[in-house]
Amino acid sequence: MSHDGIKIVSAEEARRDASQEQMKLPVEATTPLKIRVMKTEGTGVEIDWKDGHKSAWNFAWLRNGCPCATCHEERGKSGRVPGEAKPRAQALLMMYEAPPRPVEVTPVGKYAVKFKWNDGHEAGIYSWEYLRKVCQCAECKAKADLM
Ligand SMILES: [Zn+2]
Ligand SMILES: [Zn+2]
């Protein structure tokens, strides 16, 4: 018997996946009316949604919230939520790292946007649905905390 393809997930991971699947959003909530990427300013992204809601993320959040499989897995292993920065190891030699910012922003079809970051990473495809689910406004964050 082969056990290939069997993925062992922790209970918490399974719960998180289930709660995300249950959260089906209406089309208006995941359709952007206006997307502003403040690439030159280096600040972040703002989206006005069709349902009237407004979301904003800074670039550091978006880099730490990269939805690609590698980043997702890495966050899972270290118990971080999307957008949470990696804990810094105490070190004698302090390395200065440039704050995350995109060097390239590319639309992906009509459903997502892709960033090429200044650290070279570019695997993440940020779908409107994902972005709406990780909206950082006080109202959405309060809702997410209840789940
Ligand atoms: Zn990634
Ligand atoms: Zn919100």
Number of strands: 6
How much helical structure, as a percent, in the residues?
Answer: 25-40%
Distance between the termini: 38 Å
Bound molecules: zinc ion
Q: Segments where pLDDT lies below 50 for 5+ residues?
A: none
Question: Gyration radius, to the nearest Å?
Answer: 17 Å
Helix/sheet category: alpha+beta
* SSE order: HEEEHHEEEHH
CATH topology: NE0471 N-terminal domain-like
Specify the overall morphology. globular
Enumerate the strands of the largest sheet in spatial order, edge to edge or round the barrel.
1-2-3
Give an overview of the whole structure.
The chain is α+β, with helices and mostly antiparallel strands. It has a single domain, classed as NE0471 N-terminal domain-like. Helix content is 29%, strand content 22%. The chain is built from 5 helices and 6 strands. It has helices at residues 11-22, 59-64, 69-78, 128-133, 138-146, and strands at residues 32-37, 44-49, 54-58, 102-108, 112-117, 125-127. Strand 1 (32-37) and strand 2 (44-49) form a beta hairpin. The longest helix has 12 residues, at 11-22. The mean pLDDT is 87. The structure holds zinc ion (2 copies).
